[in-house]
Amino acid sequence: MDRGKMAEAESLETAAEHERILREIESTDTACIGPTLRSVYDGEEHGRFMEKLETRIRNHDREIEKMCNFHYQGFVDSITELLKVRGEAQKLKNQVTDTNRKLQHEGKELVIAMEELKQCRLQQRNISATVDKLMLCLPVLEMYSKLRDQMKTKRHYPALKTLEHLEHTYLPQVSHYRFCKVMVDNIPKLREEIKDVSMSDLKDFLESIRKHSDKIGETAMKQAQQQRNLDNIVLQQPRIGSKRKSKKDAYTIFDTEIESTSPKSEQDSGILDVEDEEDDEEVPGAQDLVDFSPVYRCLHIYSVLGARETFENYYRKQRRKQARLVLQPPSNMHETLDGYRKYFNQIVGFFVVEDHILHTTQGLVNRAYIDELWEMALSKTIAALRTHSSYCSDPNLVLDLKNLIVLFADTLQVYGFPVNQLFDMLLEIRDQYSETLLKKWAGIFRNILDSDNYSPIPVTSEEMYKKVVGQFPFQDTELEKQPFPKKFPFSEFVPKVYNQIKEFIYACLKFSEDLHLSSTEVDDMIRKSTNLLLTRTLSNSLQNVIKRKNIGLTELVQIIINTTHLEKSCKYLEEFITNITNVLPETVHTTKLYGTTTFKDARHAAEEEIYTNLNQKIDQFLQLADYDWMTGDLGNKASDYLVDLIAFLRSTFAVFTHLPGKVAQTACMSACKHLATSLMQLLLEAEVRQLTLGALQQFNLDVRECEQFARSGPVPGFQEDTLQLAFIDLRQLLDLFIQWDWSTYLADYGQPNCKYLRVNPVTALTLLEKISREMKDTSRKNNMFAQFRKNERDKQKLIDTVAKQLRALISTHHS
């Protein structure tokens, strides 16, 4: 039973499910019926569902049939009325078709007119829209056209401003147009083009500035020279109203429109043409020559483009390179002053430009950069000047160079550059200048001394006398009283040398001008240089003249006289220096002139040379001596050579009248001593191994001639018999042998008051041996022909005895 109930329950559920599916099929869209049917096929009651579906279809067919039967009459009536309406409709259709044909025919022209009106309205609308768009685009096109014109005329800074307005104001309003996109794409290119063109202008400017730096510097230095001349005039006379042009005033001529709109031609190089002006016209300002607009334009363009730092670095780098080129001196700069002038002009021109850039731009260059460049320039300039000035041997060129360096320093000092090192270097060049002056004056002194006739200056009129006195400070009341013609004691080289010393002092003074030195420093410099001139240059020149081989005694005597007067003139040179420097000689640390020492040394050298020269002349005469040492004849007069020698000495000492007394006396005593010594050597020379008493008698006559000369007083000032003492050794020796007074000599030897005090036993023995040899040789010859004479034999024995005693004396003396 339970199984039956379960089967019944299942059939009920199946029937309800089928009923639901059927309702769903009836109410669902055909496109969505697939899942419903799939659920049927997926089930197990497919047959029963098909039965139920068939049953449902039959029910619906019966309902349709009933409904059709119910409405059939109405359907027939409707068809009948519809057929009637069809005929009316056909008539209406024909009428409408005819009316439409007529209407189409009648409205054809209207349609054409309307179509034309439509097209006109469309065109009008398009034109209006186009005008509106063009009004919006025209300012853009105008700005772009303006930009191209500015680019073409090289007005790059205004072009950059126009480009900024175009990019930020006008193009955004019409950015959807294709031509605007082209413009937008071209803007970076235009910026680069402006940057490149402005940089090209800057490069042209830098190149032109490099080439024309010397012109700029030359003009600046001319201005400084004019200002210095004006200052000197103002110092000498009351100031009339001229004022020193300040550096600020100089910069007013640089005022330039930063946003210049004037076209700049391709030939514009930054240097303006200036016609050559007459010397009496005002020199144009150095900055008048320069157009700085390329720098300003390029600076502002790069600033606007945000590349100012790049521009500053490029400008400074290029100017540093140019500075190194400017500071490289030409290899032959030292040959002419123009070489130095061009070198200085270029340096001044460079820094004038940089100084102006510093004061007319904000930050393109700064003081640290300028100071760094100046330090480099200063060191290189000083090194170059030291090197090249060392080659200068012409003092005039060194002096001109000094003046040029001073002008160079003064010019740069106006622009605020420190120039103390340049003035320090000038002090070094001053020493070199002194050396070149000394070399020049060495040649001058040499020419003066070589061309001098070493004779007292003759004057035949008062005019000539005053002329000489005007050239050299000389006062002699006795000479003034003498009638014309008369002679000064000195020769022409005295006033010439004195004036050249003054010229040297003037030359030294010229170099000290404008060096900002105190009077004491100038005085010290002049005195030191003058001392070098006196102690080295003039002293060497005098020494060279004195030591010349062919110089005569007359010249030496005149040199002594000349140096004596020059020595006296040293105080006048002191006064001369004091007058031009206004520094009193009593001032502390004032250098004294060494002229007195110089002339004393020269005079002493001349005196020594006189002594040497006299001795040489005596030796030359003695070389003419031709004694016959073996003669037996007794002469009655002095030898000819000695007579000539005495005559020479007399004439020579007659010239010594103008010499100081001691010099003449010393020369005379020296000559007599040398003559006595030479005669003694002549008598005792080893080559003369034998001599006779007759030869000794002749020699005695010559010595007497010498003694006679000494007694005659060839030079005043000697005390009685003083000069004869020069021959005392010869006299005692000859007296000993001629008088044959050996007993006295041997007995008194060694006593202070002995008669033959000046006879040396060695000398006496030497001469005795020569006589002994001669006597022995004669005895041998006589022994061959006759009996040996007793007196000769006795004399020989005496000689041997004396010789033996002399040897004993010598031995005792040495022991």
UniProtKB/TrEMBL annotation:
Residues 52-221 form the Exocyst complex component EXOC6/Sec15 N-terminal domain. Residues 421-770 form the Exocyst complex subunit EXOC6/Sec15 C-terminal domain. The keyword Cell membrane does not apply. Keywords: Coiled coil, Exocytosis, Transport. One of its GO terms (biological process) is Golgi to plasma membrane transport. Residues 82-109 form a coiled coil. The keyword Coiled coil applies. Residues 257-280 are annotated as: Disordered. It comes from the Eukaryota. Pfam families: EXOC6_Sec15_N, Sec15_C. GO terms for cellular component: exocyst; plasma membrane. Belongs to the SEC15 family. PANTHER family: EXOCYST COMPLEX COMPONENT 6B, SEC15. Component of the exocyst complex involved in the docking of exocytic vesicles with fusion sites on the plasma membrane. This is Exocyst complex component. It comes from Rhinolophus ferrumequinum (Greater horseshoe bat).
